[in-house]
Structure formats: C-alpha cells, structure tokens
Specification:
single chain; alpha/beta; Rossmann fold; 2 domains; 10 helices; globular; binds adenosine-5'-triphosphate; binds magnesium ion
Length: 257
C-alpha cells in the first residue's frame, strides 16, 4: 500500500505557542490510522492543517501525491479529504436530510434553482444527489428521522449525522475528530464496527483522533502519539502502547518509576 497522505515536518505556532512541532508521518491507502495524545497535544490543530482550516507555519502535506499545504478548505474537500469536528458543526435548524444534502451542493457550486429550472441533466444530478443523501442517512441509522431538525437529535445521533455529511462528499480520506466523545461503551463498540464497515464499503482511508485507547488499539494498524505538539511515537499499536515515552505522557510518570 502506498501513502495516500504524507505529512512532512509540519509545524503550527499560535503567537509564541508551538501547537504542533515538526511532525512527520505517512498514512497508507485503506488503513485506519489512529492519532492519540493528551488534551492540548495538537491533534485538532494537525487536522485543521490537513483540511486547510489552519495554515502551517512550516512543513508540507501531500495528498494523492499533490502538495495541499495552504490550499483552501473547499478545494481540499473536493479533492477527497473530508472531516468531522470535535465540536459538532451541524446546521441545527435544518433537517437531518438537508444537513447531508446541502454541503455537497454548495461545494459543487450548484445553484439552488438549477434543480427547478435547469437542464434535464442538472435535474437528474439533483435527483441522484438526493437519493445518495437519503442512502447515507439510512446508513448511519437515522432513516426514520430524515425530517427532524438536527438540533433536536440526541448527541450520539448528531455525531453519526456529521459522519454522513462528510461521506456525502465521496471522500477518499475521512478525518474523524473524537467521534466517540460522550458515547457509552456499547455505542463506542457500534461506532468501531461502523468505521470499519464504511472503510470497507467506500474504500476509505480513515484518520481517527480518539482518547479511548482500547478503541484505537482495536481499530488501527498504525498509531501516532502527540504530546505538547511533538510526535513522540508512531507504529503498530502494541509497540506504541509499550513505549515508555507514551506511558509517561499519559500517566505523567516515568515508565520505570
Ligand atoms: N486558534 C488557536 N489560537 C491559539 N491557540 C490555539 C488555537 N487552537 C489551538 N490552540 C492551542 O494549541 C494547543 C493544541 O490544541 P489542540 O486543540 O490542537 O489540541 P488537541 O490535541 O486537539 O486537544 P484535545 O484533546 O483537548 O482536543 C493547545 O495549547 C491549544 O490551546
Ligand atoms: Mg482536539
């Protein structure tokens, strides 16, 4: 498997604070790659740089062999890199179905009137997009709530709706920022199965930020660990979990203490 995403010497400074310092790693096509680390380690900032929401202070990101560092978020999303957010970002007043439908629409630059007055082909595209959005809502288990406003969904459902919305962009790479936050054990297990299932079904590559270490160890073949913005370990889950620097970062004590 070749690298679909290559991060090289990536850094981000906020004023005097180094949120991410000289981080390099590669993600292979088709894998589920775990990114872990204590609070404030720089995980979300790294995702923000991968998706164009934060401009790197230094370093590069290559996606599908192309340098995307500093590109606009919409351009990166259209290339096939989609994400969910740690702080869920849905259109609360909009229906479940429209939350999945509208972003794709916006990115395609389609006019809202195109479907009504436009050509036969634009109407057909519109119908296909609608069918795809419905299928994705079904896939995340919200088929019975197509017309419910997103804001009135329970928390776990909103997290799944965000994943459906990201999938509507037909991504090649899906970035999930703490998708299991606030879920109970059973919900986390369901989510793990779901992530594996969509990876297989859509041929995705997945980057997963997650605090729940057993979940990451169960899902990921490669794991990278950030601490105070620095990459302190990367590799297979077993090796990473046994790494003294990782144990120290998580427990705040030297491994042999
Ligand atoms: N826009 C910003 N301006 C200034 N500082 C920021 C900004 N965004 C993040 N930081 C700082 O950068 C550091 C890394 O934050 P980041 O949110 O990337 O961590 P994280 O690993 O995602 O943490 P968590 O597990 O709590 O989500 C923190 O010290 C944070 O306060
Ligand atoms: Mg974060």
């Amino acid at each position: 498997m070749s690298a679909i995403l290559a991060v090289e010497s990536l850094s981000k400074a906020f004023g005097g604070l180094m949120a991410v310092t000289d981080v390099s790693f590669e993600v292979r096509e088709g894998e589920i790659f775990g990114l872990i680390g204590p609070n404030g380690a720089g995980k979300t900032t790294l995702f923000n740089m991968l998706t164009g929401l934060a401009k790197p202070t230094a370093g590069t990101v290559h996606f599908l062999g192309q340098d995307i560092s500093g590109k606009a978020p919409a351009a990166i999303a259209l290339m096939g890199l989609a994400r969910t957010f740690q702080n869920i970002r849905l259109f609360g007043g909009m229906s479940v179905l429209d939350n999945v439908r509208v972003p794709r629409h916006a990115l395609d630059g389609a006019s809202l009137w195109g479907g009504v007055f436009g050509s036969a082909s634009s109407r057909r595209r519109e119908r296909e997009a609608l069918a795809q959005a419905r299928a994705l809502v079904e896939l995340v288990g919200l088929g019975g709530r197509m017309d419910t406003p997103a804001a009135s969904l329970p928390y776990g459902d909103r997290r799944r709706l965000e994943i459906a919305r990201a999938l509507a962009l037909s991504p090649k790479v899906l970035l999930l920022d703490e998708p299991a936050a606030g879920m109970n054990h059973a919900e986390k297990q369901d989510l793990s199965r779901f992530i594996r299932d969509i990876r297989d079904r859509f041929g995705l590559t997945v980057l997963l930020i997650e605090h729940n270490v057993p979940m990451v160890m169960g899902l990921c073949r490669s794991v990278a660990v950030l601490n105070f913005g620095q990459l302190i370990a990367k590799g297979e889950p077993e090796a990473v979990q046994a790494d003294p620097a990782v144990i120290e970062a998580y427990l705040g004590v030297a491994a042999d203490a």
